Every structure is written in C-alpha cells, then in structure tokens.
Amino acid sequence: MSRRRPTEGGPALSRRALLTGTAGALGGAVLAGLPGVLDGQEAAPARPIVPEDATKLQGAATSPLGERSPFVTASRAPYGETVGSSLTPLQDLTGVVTPSDLHFERHHAGIPALDPERHTLTIHGLVERPLTFSVDDLKRFPQTVRTYFIECSGNGRAAYREPKPEMTAQKVSGMLSTSEWTGVPLATLFREVGAKPEAKWFLAEGGDACLMTRSVPMAKAWDDAMVVWAQNGEPLRPAQGYPIRLLLPGWEGNINVKWLRRLELGAAPWMTRWETAKYTDPRPDHTADMFTFAQQAKSIITSPSHPGRIASPGWHAVHGLAWTGRGRITKVEVSVDGGGRWHEAELLGEVRPKAPVRFQHMWEWRGDAATLLSRATDETGEVQPTRTALIATRGIGTDYHFNQIVGWQVARDGAVTFHGET
Amino acid sequence: MRRLFPLTLLAALVACRGGDGPSGSDTADAGTRYGLGRPADAQFVARLDTDIDPSGAALPAGRGTAAEGAVLYAAQCAMCHGAEGLGMPPAFPRLLGRDPKAEDFTFASDHKLPKTIGNYWPYATTLFDYIRRAMPLTAPGSLTDDQVYALTAYLLAADGVIPKETTLDAAALAAVKMPYTDRFIWSAEAGSQDRD
C-alpha cells in the first residue's frame, strides 16, 4: 500500500537557506507547502524540513483551504479505480468522525460530475402527488443533523477469507466511515407526496453511469431514513453522492444510494442486480439470504495496529472503534491474551445509535508476546463471533456482513501484525 | 408562576397556529405540507422510469434472438467480459459458465466457485434491466430494446437457461424461470410480505 506524498514536486528550497533562516523573508507560506523529499526516492520516508526553532521566524499566512501538516501522511488506498474502492486509513484516525476527504469510496461506474442546479429528485409511483424537487427545494424542508456510519457490507471480506499478518486496519476494516450528515427525513418527503398505504417498498435510483438501483422497505422511510446534502458541515463530497444521497442509517453501504435522482414507491421489490446477483449472502444450507440490510456488531483495535510498532514497554492506551447498525453498542471488551481473559473497555464520549464509539483499554506491556483482541456487544444482545464461529454458521464462501473478532499480534520486539484467525 | 408558564406557552402556540394571514403561517407540525417541489412531468418520469420488476409488466416492445445477441456480445461486451463470458474480476464480472461443483448452490462452502447468470441470478428480468440501464461500460444506455432482448437471450441461452433458438420478447422473458430462484430467502428485515 504505497503512499503518495502530497507535496512531492513542490517548490525547491535549499535546506541550508531554511536552516540559516535566510528563507524567512519568504514567510511561512512556502514552508507549509514544502516537499517532504526533494530527491524523489521512494525508500525511507524522509522527514519534512522545518526550522530548527519555529519561534524565531514568522509562521505561514492564512489560506483559502486548510492543509494537513506535512508530517501527516494519512491517505486512502488503493486509488485510481473507476469500478472499485478506496479505503479509509483507520489506523491514522482518532475520535469517531472521518475527515471527509478520507471517507472510503465504493462505486460501480465512477463518480459522476453533477451540477446542483440541474440535479433533481423525483418521487413517483404509489403516491398522491408525483413531485420533482430541486436541491434548493429539499433544503427548505425542516432539517435533521445526525452522526451515522456508512459501512460497505463487503468490509472485512479479505480478512475473513484469508487473513494475513501484513494486513492493516485500513485493509481489514477501511470500508467504514462516519460523518455528521445534514438532510431532510425521508418521511417528510413521503408525506409531502402523499405515499399511498399500499406502497410497501420504494426503489432508489442514483444518477451515476450504472443508474444504481436498490429496493427499500417503506418501514425504513418512516423510521430514520434521510435524504442528505451535507457531510461534516459542508456539501457532500462528490464521492459521497454530491449533491444528494439517500442515507439509511445502519444499513449496508450500497443501499445508501448516492447521486440520488429518483424514488419510486411500489408494492414489491424490483429485484435489481444489486439485491440479487450481488449483496446476497449464500448460506451453508444451499440457500442465500437476500435483503440483509443491517450491519452487525463489530469492532477493531486501531492502535496499536500493523504496521505500527510498540516502541517501549510500559502503559499504552489500546483503542479502536466499535459499531452496530442495529442500535447502540452496549459493551466492548478487550483481551491481551488472545481471548483468555476479557476486560471491559471504556467507551469514550456519547454512545449514539448507528454511530461508532471509540473504546479504550489501558494496558501495561511488559515486553512479552501478546495477542490483542476486541469484542463488541450491541443492544440486541449480539456479541461479535470468532471467525471460526462465523465460518461454522455462514460458511467460508459467504459474501457480505463479516463481523468476526479480529486483532493484533505483538511480538517481543514490539512489532505488530494482524491476527485474523480467531 | 412556574405552573403558569406552560399555559402561557400553549396560548402563544395557539395564537401562532391561528395566525395565518397575508404573511403566511408562523409554525409547522408533522402534518404540514410545505408545497415545495413541482408536479413531476409525466414524460420526464417515463424517460427515467425504466426499471423492470420480476412480473415483467414494464418490459418494452421489441424482440431479439440469441444468435443476434452473440454478434452484439462479440462486438460490445467481449472486450471486458471475455469471449466466453469469463470476465476479468473484480472490475469486470464473470457472466457465464456453470461449474458442476456449484450446481447444488454450494457457494457458502467455497468462495472460489464463480457465481454466474445461470447458476445464481434469481430473475431473468434483472438481466434485461441492468443491461439496458448500465451497459456497455463505454456507452451506458446506448442499446436499443431489441438489442437488449438479443443480449439477454444470448446470455440466458449460453448458460443453458433457455433453448438457443428462443426469441425473447416481453412475454417470453417474463415467463423465463431461472434455475435457483427458490434458493433465495428473504431476511426478516424485508418484512413479512409474501414472496412473489
């Protein structure tokens, strides 16, 4: 998983000039955009060059858009996929909310370029009044602001099928991201068009090149579904559905249709490609479950994690994320001995429904080999199963909704590698 | 005083509710219709509304044969999905081929068993719907309805679902029975509706 240095190719400035302070007249603006490496070599990541003493010259000026410190290298990976995905670097993040530019991407026909003044949402079918809304129309309805995760239901597949020591938290669980979303409750829109009682399902259609379609039970609309236009205080990013997307809290990512352009109310599901050929779950009894919407109780330790290393013995905060699409997380346990003993972890901050919570367990590492695991329980009583248990009930060939316990091996030298065979 | 406050508030709310005048209503509740949006244009809706459900009721006029579909497939589909429909997963999915080991729907025991139209897809209408809305990748939505019928016929025939000489039209496609439809079970989350 190579990382691109965001500042590579920037303006050259001699190290000597910087260290002697003769670049001071240029101001800090140049320093802020300074290349991390000047020789273009991919080998050892070079340290960004900064003054010996930042108190002895003026810092950078204001700018229209903020940038990360050159010391921060968090990035999605892989990238460059038209039909594919990029994953959130969970190991580089703290708290609960995912920075919008690090939200995972998953799309099936690229990211469409949409003009918000031309884009509309049409609601028709089993309704009293078929209506077309502009994006501005939608913003005039009463708004709701909520924090929810979106997780691809294929998240964790690679670690389930074939766990490998070199897997990172990003590789294992990086198709999970969390945002504060602003939008209008779908129930408000369905009242506005006059949904008929015989409507039991609705079809959501996106405006991308595959015209993504999914069938959704009406009950979700009356519960907590939203049509959202903002993410973390600003308009949606294009990869998250700009200008509007459907948000079905706690449900598998694919059904949260991005670039939403049409909702059709009907009596039965449409059986689109994405709810038949895909996003169905083969079972060991030679059947497949369909319409498995909710994401299940799940957790991952993000620190320590591969490729990190525990530098020295002593106290360490073991922390990570726990989430469930079926309400609230009620408990997270951490084991440092591969599941022999479990310790209830502290849950940091408010535990919200269908939003991750960060958990923490203080651990004194004495330099011995250790296996760190986390195990989440949600308000339905579901406890994360081991991989062995999940394979027994679902089969190694199941395709979606992987919530097996995962963790990390810590070697005596502090090296941390993925532990997926639980 | 503390007891009086809610009554005062209620009175104020009632006053607002009754305050509809030239400047409009001051408050809204869950039953309010906001009058936003515009009536959906019927022609606009008809242009967008191309979805086909398993009843096939919305299938368009037109027809096509597997032989016609084979020519179209070679010209427009094979560059991604391969001449034999084996695909280049994951970006370009495999379409065809029925591994004998998968013929009893044994996918849970072996993730390497390829799921194809013939051994997995529960509804033939889905194939028509998806080809028409999303294919080919380089020019989505460019196929005529006759071409979509022909490609659907070719793919179904190639995977042994329909005889190779079948001509597909709306009625014939709606009548196609896929081999494994009855293996798909609705989850509890889908509600208690009867399966169609």
Question: What does this molecule look like?
Answer:
With 422 residues, chain A is mostly beta strands. Chain A contains eight helices and 23 strands. Chain A has helices at 15-20, 28-32, 135-139, 157-161, 169-173, 186-193, 218-223, 387-394; strands spanning 84-86, 105-107, 120-125, 131-134, 144-151, 176-185, 201-206, 213-217, 226-231, 234-235, 245-247, 260-266, 281-283, 287-290, 298-303, 314-323, 329-335, 343-344, 346-348, 357-365, 370-378, 407-410, 416-419. In chain A, strands 4-3-12-7-8 form a five-stranded mixed β-sheet. In chain A, strands 5, 6, 9, 10 and 11 form a five-stranded antiparallel β-sheet that branches. Chain A is globular and about 70 Å long. By secondary structure, chain B is mainly alpha-helical. Chain B has a domain at 62-181: Orthogonal Bundle (Cytochrome Bc1 Complex, Chain D, domain 2). Chain B has helices spanning 4-17, 42-48, 66-76, 78-81, 124-134, 145-158, 170-174, and strands at residues 38-39, 64-65, 167-168, 184-186. Chain B has a two-stranded antiparallel ribbon. Chain B is globular. The termini of chain B are far apart. At the A-B interface, strand 3, strand 4, strand 12 and strand 14 of A face strand 1, helix 2, helix 5 and strand 4 of B.
Q: What is the CATH C-level name of the largest domain in chain A?
A: Alpha Beta
| CATH fourth-tier homologous superfamily of the domain at 62-181 in chain B | Cytochrome c-like domain
Helix residue percentage of chain B: 25-40%
Assembly state here? heterodimer
Number of helices of chain A: 8
Percent helix of chain A, as a range, is 10-25%
> Mean pLDDT across all residues of chain B, rounded?
88
- Indicate the CATH architecture of the domain at 62-181 in chain B: Orthogonal Bundle
Rounded radius of gyration of chain A (Å): 24 Å
Number of strands of chain A: 23
* Count of separate DSSP helical elements of chain B: 7
Q: What structural category do the secondary elements of chain A indicate?
A: mainly beta
Strand order across the largest sheet of chain B:
2-3
Largest sheet of chain A: 5 strands, mixed
Given as residue ranges, the uncertain stretches of chain A (5+ residues, pLDDT < 50) are: 1-41
CATH hierarchy, class of the domain at 62-181 in chain B: Mainly Alpha
Structural class of chain B: mainly alpha
